[in-house]
TrEMBL record:
It comes from Nannocystis radixulma. PROSITE patterns: PROKAR_LIPOPROTEIN (PS51257). Keywords: Signal. This is Myxococcus cysteine-rich repeat-containing protein. The keyword Signal applies.
Amino acid sequence: MQRRRTVLSLLLAGACGDSSAGTSQSASDSDSSVGTSTTTGDAATGSTEEVPTTGSEGSHSASESETGGATATATATETATTDDTTAGVSETGTTEMTSGGCVDECMDGALQCAGADAVQACEVGEAGCLVWGAPDECAAGSTCEDGECVAGCSDACTLGDTQCMADGVADCVDDPMSGCTVWSEAVACDAGEACVEGTCAGPAIDCTDDCVWTKQAVNANIDLYGVWGSSAESVWTVGKAGSALYYNGNTWKAVDTGILTRLDCVDGSAADDVYAISSDGKIIRWDGSEWTFLSNLFPDLGKAGCLSVIGPGDLLAITYGTGSYDVDLWRVQDGVKTLIWEWSDEVLPPIGVKEVSVSFRAFSPTSALATSGHVWRWDGVKSTDLQSPNHSYGLWAPAPDLLYAAARNVGLGGRWDGQMWKVVNPALDGYLHMFTGSSTARIFGVGEQKADSSAAIVAFDGIGWSPAAVPADANSLFAAWTAPTGEVFAVGKGGTILIGK
C-alpha cells in the first residue's frame, strides 16, 4: 500500500508541474530504466491493478485517489499530451506539418501569377500557416509573368486582315514572342499591279491625266465633304445639313440620316457597315437598310471631325473643337466610345471656299495618320507632329509610312515617305483640298481654280503631274476616293460629283 501511494504521489506531482518530484511531464518522456509500475484504476469500482510502465511508448493511464475517484488527472495528462502534439511548434517558432494541424502552401515572401493579369503573395493565414493571399490585379495593359506584372502588348490588327504597305500587301499575323497580332513584312505586288484595299490587283481602269470625267446628275445643291464606297457600285457621299447621297452604279439617291449638322467624313468596312461623323461629333451607322445614331463624341458644339474604320463595328475618330486648339482621338467599338489621346493644334480654314476640315486614316488601333493643320502620327502610345512644311489638310495614306497631304499654300501639297517630306508642286494655279489614288504611280489631287473656284484635278503617272480635263460647269472639289477597280469619285461644292474613268 505504501508503494502504491508513493507512485500516486509522483504521478500527481508530475501532472501539477512539480519538477522537484524528479519525474517527466508526460508518460511519453518517462525513462524505462526507472522500473516503476503504473497503477490504473476503475473510477466506478475503485479497484486497482498494477501494470508495468510502457517506457518510451507512454500511456494514457491515470492514477486515482483512495476515495476512488478522480480521473481528472488522467484527463489533464491526456489533454496536455494532445495539445503538445497538435501545436507542432519547434523551439525556433517555425510552423511544421503535424497531426491535426494546418499545412504551409508556400514559402514566406514567394509570389505567383493568378491567371494572366494578377499576382498572389505568400502570407500568414488565419490558422497561422503560410497561404496564398488574394490576387492583386496588374495595371491596365500589363500581364503577369513569373509572379511579376510586366508591360503587356496590344493587338496591332485583326488576325487575317490585310493592308497596303508601300507597293505590297501586309498580313495581320500572330507574334509568337509577344502573343499579340502584328503586321507582317509587305509582299510586293507583281509588275503592273498595285495594292488597293489590301489586295494586289491590276485595276480595270488605269487612266491618269487621260481619264474622262463625267459630271453626275444630282438634284441637290449642297456642299459635299466626304466620299467612300465598298465598290464602284456602292458609294456614299456626305455633306452639309446631314446630307447623304447613295450611288448604286447607275443613279444617285438622297437618303435620310437623322442628322442636321454638316457630315464631314464617311468610311466603312462593307456595304452594310458604313459610318459617318458630323462636325459636332455625332456618329451614325448604315446597316444596309437605314442610318441610325451610334455615338456622340462631343459634349458641346464642335467644329470638325473625321473617322476611319479598322474593322466591323470598330473605328478611330478625331474631333476638333472642344477647346481653342484641342484635337481629341477616340476609339469607338460597337457604339462604346473611349477617349485615348489628345493634342493641341491650330486648325485654320483652307484657302478657297472649303470650310474648316480635318482628315484621318487609321491602319489599326495603334497606327494612324491625321491632318489637323499639322500632320500627326499615332503609334498607340502618343501622337507625334511630323513637321509638315505647310499647313496641311486632305490626306491620302495608302500605308503607315507613305502619305500625301494637301497644303494651304497655293497649288501645293506634301509627300511623306516615313522619313522626310517632299513638296508636291503640280503647277496648279489654285488650291488642293484632297489626294486619292490606286498606287504610287496613279495619284490624283482635287481642288479648285484660284480664278473662279471651278473644279481642278491634277494627275500623277509615276513620273510627273499633269492637269486633267474636267467639265467647265463643275464647282470646287473637296474630297475624293478611288474604287478598287480604278474609278475615281470626286465631290464638292453645290452638289458637284465627278466620276473619272
